[in-house]
Amino acid sequence: MIVRNPDQRVAVLVDVQNVYYSARNLFNTKVNFKALLKHVVHDRLLVRAIAYVINAEAAGEKVNFFEAVNEAGFEVKEKELTVFLGGAKKGDWDLGIAMDAIRLGNKVDSIVLVSGDGDFCPVVNYLQQSLGCLVEVVAFKHTTNHTLIEMADDFTDIENHKTELLFRSRPEGKKHTTTTEIPLEKPAPVAPARPIISKRPAQPKQTFRPRPTPSAKPATFRQSTPNKAPYKPNTYKPNPYKPSTPPSAPSAPSAPKPPTMPPSPYIA
User: Fold this and answer.
1) How far does CA 26 lie from the centroid of its chain?
2) pTM of the model
3) From the CB of residue 222, how many other CB atoms can be counted at a distance below 10 Å?
4) 154-157/45-55 β-pairing
5) Using an 8 Å Cβ cutoff, are 126 and 102 in contact?
6) Residue 36 in contact with residue 165, Cβ under 8 Å?
7) Are the CB atoms for 176 and 182 separated by under 8 Å?
8) By the 8 A CB rule, do 133 and 110 touch?
């Protein structure tokens, strides 16, 4: 806890991306930057108030948001979102915020860092040890680095001032209006649930009935006869119009003839 007096010179540096997504993920709402600036300054001398934003929204939403932050009393510094060849995206102001904090360290008595990013721990240590500057951290405790909380001279938890520093939670599916409060709508009446009636009538429960066994009959044996054609006698009758010649008996084989020798020239 530090002592705040009206003669202290203060510089406020806001990491918009950090507090914007923390408020949306934790409470589904947005930060009231005008009330935030009034709360952190605490009736002291404001030297500079800078809000660091990433240009990643639609054209209409970007203009409305920048105008709202500018009207709250902040100087807006904008940076384009970097898209790499593989489709990865990157956008942060860590180095820019650190350089501005070092530049303003010799000109102010206290620097109010509105961010919970642990990458600012070396910068906080340098401002305290080398420049003798007070460092106040303002962020959501659930999303703030524990080392950063311990190193800061004073830590303000936005969750303890929700009614003052945050807009009212907006219902799902409804866009945020320009007013500071969103009117709550009455929920639509819900019809009572109708009982489910089955159209198919219930089937009666079937009972098991044993199947009657057939009565045993005495086996009968029947002598089977082979399938044999009836005998028919030879009833060949010769054709009267064609004389029939009985087959002749086979002749006996003739005796082989003796071999003939050629005449010899020596015999007269």
Assistant:
1) 22
2) 0.61
3) 4
4) unpaired
5) yes
6) yes
7) yes
8) yes
Q: Which CATH number fits domain 9-165: 3.50.50.60, 3.40.50.10490, 3.40.50.1010, 3.20.20.70?
A: 3.40.50.1010
Contacts with 249 (C-beta within 8 Å, 6 or more apart), sequence order: none
Give yes or no for a contact between 117 and 143, defined as CB atoms under 8 angstroms apart. Answer: no
Cα(139)–Cα(156) distance, integer angstroms: 7
Pure H helices in 91-240? 94-104, 121-129, 146-151, 162-165
Return the percent helix, strand and coil in the chain, to nearest 5: 30, 15, 55
Q: Tell me the CA end-to-end span of the chain in Å, nearest whole number.
A: 175
Q: What is the mean pLDDT for each group of 10 consecutive residues in the chain (268 residues)?
A: 89 93 91 93 94 74 78 90 72 89 94 95 95 95 94 95 83 47 49 61 66 63 58 64 60 68 64
- What is the reported pLDDT for 86? 72
Distance CA 131, CA 99 (A): 14
Torsion angle, CA of 71/135/145/168, rounded to 10 degrees? -30
Contact (CB, 8 A) for 148 and 124: yes
Q: What is the pLDDT of residue 157?
A: 95
* Tally: H helices and E strands in the chain: 7, 8
| Those residues with Cβ within 8 angstroms of residue 117's Cβ, 6 or more apart along the chain or in another chain | 15, 18, 94, 145, 148
The domain spans of the chain are 9-165
